[in-house]
């Protein structure tokens, strides 16, 4: 059995979430989005499973709000 963890770089997180770079870092600062992990001296990335969980939570929150796609922070 392989236990693989995939790290996403900022461009991949932007692609997956549809958020801008500045919004991603703003949500990290607010504790809404998981923080990146350091993978090198000048390199960081996000754990794919954590980004997937964030997206699932956003979908669930969106569905729970009467009227649909309200922006929830």
Number of domains: 1
Helix run count: 3
The count of DSSP E runs of length 2 or more, i.e. the number of strands, is 3
**Helical content class:** 40-55%
Distance between the termini: 38 Å
Radius of gyration: 14 Å
Strand content: 15-25%
| Order of neighbouring strands in the sheet with most strands | 1-3-2
What is the CATH C-level name?
A: Mainly Alpha
Which regions contain 5 or more consecutive residues with pLDDT less than 50? none
Assign the structural class, choosing from mainly alpha, mainly beta, alpha/beta, alpha+beta, or little secondary structure. Answer: alpha+beta
Instruction: Write the CATH architecture name.
Output: Orthogonal Bundle
Summarize the helix and strand pattern as letters.
EHHEEH
Look up the CATH topology: Multidrug-efflux Transporter Regulator, Chain: A, Domain 2
Mean pLDDT: 91
